[in-house]
UniProtKB/TrEMBL annotation:
Keywords, sorted A to Z: Repeat, Signal, TPR repeat
Ranges annotated as spanning the membrane: none
Domain of life (superkingdom): Bacteria
Endpoints of the signal sequence: 1-16
Name of the protein this chain belongs to: Tetratricopeptide repeat protein
PANTHER family the record matches: PROTEIN O-MANNOSYL-TRANSFERASE TMTC4, PTHR44227
Amino acid sequence: MRHLFLVTLCVTGAFALSGCTGSSEEEVERAVQDVMASDESNLNEIMMTVADPDEAVAYFKRASAESPDRIDYKRGLGRSLVRAKHNSEAVIVWSNVVQHPEATTDDSIELADALIRASKWDEAEKVLDGIPPTVETFKRYRLEAMVADSNKEWKNADSFYETAVGLTTKPSGVLNNWGYSKLSRGNFKEAERLFIEAIGYDRNLFTAKNNLVLARGAQRNYQMPVIDMSQIERAQLLYTMALSAIKQGDTAIGKGLLEDAIDTHPQHFEDAVRSLRALNG
């Protein structure tokens, strides 16, 4: 209804303009088509970003079937499939997109991203290797860092992560990935620093908070970090810290942390209760 209203309003305005200026019918039609194209572009953007992922997939599948030559619909479908976590299907769609005559290097980067999400690391590396080195974008370097990580090429990974951080104003996610890379290498102090930096950019990034607790626990530092957290988050982080302590043989400390987690959580904390029972049993 809204779509029809906009078009009707525009048609009315276009005819009014025609009456005043003597414009031809072709100019009126062109004005209507321009507004319809703009409205469609806005709808596509909404579908790709904030709409329910499965609804977006259905929308772009239908649009692609009706207009199979339009690359924008194929791109929308590829992005929506990634959002819906249908990674294998997303790989197929992006593989088709990069074969399109209007495909760009950004499409190849999206294909590499879908391949990584589908755990096809070798194929993703080949796609990235085929992109000219002059293409220097945040997403390209973030993916290069992840591939280098998977190959345990630590020096290259650090270089790519550092470059990616410098190419975005919202580096929290890539800082968290970099921190996890350091954590997996046993460089706990550096990992802790990167997780704190990630949280500084996005205080709602719970993954970085949880990873920070893991990094501290790996150093047998069982003090909760001084960061912004809700009551539920605090209970969950206490639980993570408890498991870390138990894993390292500090059972008494782990038991105390489990009890704190249960007392802190505003509702029944089943996972922590079950772990405490198992520890006592």
